[in-house]
Amino acid sequence: MNYIPLILIVEDEPSLAQVLREYLEASGYRVAWLSRGDQVIDQVQAEQPALILLDIMLPGIDGLTVFKELRRHCDVPVVLATAKVDEIDRLIGLELGADDYLCKPYSPREMVVRVKNILRRSGAERPSTTTALSLDRAKFTASYNGQSMDLTPVEFRLLWFLSENPGRVYSRQQLLDNLYTDYRTVSERTVDSHIKNLRRKIQNMNTTQELIYSVYGVGYKFEADD
User: Fold this and answer.
1) Is the pLDDT of residue 93 over 50?
2) Which end of the chain, N or C, is less surrounded by CB atoms within 10 Å?
């Protein structure tokens, strides 16, 4: 069965939500819709969407508050949308770590294009697999030889990013740039700690494969032996 990404629309304008649903479904996505901000967290935990289109002005709880709460639980890609065009709103949205930002009125076609680009970058368009390793970005789950791996969100993002380009060597700073999008100050040695934990968890899968290799003086790379 083919994997079909689920897009969650959080929008209190039914007519706009319906148009977005039609465009997204025509592009091959599954779609769910909510009209209130206080419904989002429960829905995300239940459905695990691949991406959320989140309006800022919502009944119940406003979109920015919802977004902050989402980031406490998961790293699902989020596109913020609002009728407010003030620069401060745009900056707040992006500084919080939103993946994209659109001001109303916007073209549904443009929204679909942005959704496709974000999902392509995040890897949620398809599961990433090697011979024994399976990563599902939409569900944030990992398994090795059919055994579930207990990874933290940062460990999952690190393993996903490395495995997307087998053999390519990344510096610690490159890995940090892709692990943390909230501009926090983090030491490059933090990567070493995450790599160490990942290697330990991989070894716990009863495999002789290392998967993650150190490249002296440069950084790390992913390689899966057939």
Assistant:
1) yes
2) N
How many whole angstroms separate alpha carbon 151 and alpha carbon 148? 9
CATH number of the domain residue 106 falls in = 3.40.50.2300
Q: Is residue 53 a contact partner of residue 10, using CB atoms and an 8 Å limit?
A: yes
- Helix or strand or coil: residue 23? helix
Report the alpha-carbon distance of residue 188 to residue 192 in Å, rounded: 8
The beta strand positions in the chain, using DSSP E, are 6-10, 30-34, 51-55, 78-82, 100-103, 128-129, 133-136, 141-144, 147-148, 170-171, 212-215, 219-222
Which residue in this structure is represented by tokens 């829905």? 43
Domain stop point among 87, 122, 157: 122
Q: What does the pLDDT look like over 115-171, one tens digit per residue?
A: 988 888 766 554 444 457 888 877 778 888 778 889 988 888 889 888 877 788 888
Q: How far apart are CA 10 and CA 66, in angstroms?
A: 10
Average pLDDT in the chain? 82
* Amino acid identity for residue 100 in this structure: D
User: Tell me, what's the pLDDT at 206?
Assistant: 67
Is 1 domain-assigned? no
Residue 68 burial class via C-beta count within 10 angstroms: exposed 0-12, middle 13-18, buried 19 and up: exposed
Instruction: Please tell me the pTM assigned to this model.
Output: 0.55
